[in-house]
Design a protein that fits this description.
Length: about 130
């Protein structure tokens, strides 16, 4: 049953991401998009200064997120635990029931590189 619910949720998320085409590099429909949104961009930050040393939303996949671990080093892709999704406002993975979709936005300074492989994430899953 949980697998079916998760698959339905991910289908809805895919539809929601398709709807973000209205968000252009010139800005998003919401005021929370300070640096705009480039359609299809995964939101990988460049990690070019200390203000970026934190976790970041992966704009294409709520199961994954980016972490800048050191200035000048590429962001690392992480994966959330079972039954969790990355919630940008919380800065961590949360239970699927607590997750709320928001329009994606680019970080101030995007990475020019490719995504890469995900490593273990945060949280122990949901009970």
């Amino acid at each position: 049953m949980k697998t079916v619910v998760l698959l339905l949720l991910l289908s809805c998320i895919s539809i929601a991401f398709s709807a973000t085409v209205k968000c252009t590099s010139g800005g998003c429909a919401t005021s929370s998009c300070k640096f705009g949104y480039t359609n299809g961009n995964d939101g990988k930050p460049s990690c070019s200064d200390a203000s970026q040393l934190k976790s970041w939303r992966n704009n294409n996949d709520p199961v994954h997120y980016w972490v800048c671990e050191a200035v000048g080093k590429p962001a690392v892709s992480k994966i959330c635990s079972t039954n969790t999704l990355y919630l940008e406002s919380a800065g961590k993975c949360v239970c699927v029931d607590d997750w709320v979709w928001t329009p994606p936005c680019d970080p101030e300074d995007l990475s020019a590189g490719e995504g890469g492989s995900a490593t273990g994430g945060n949280g122990g899953g949901c009970s």
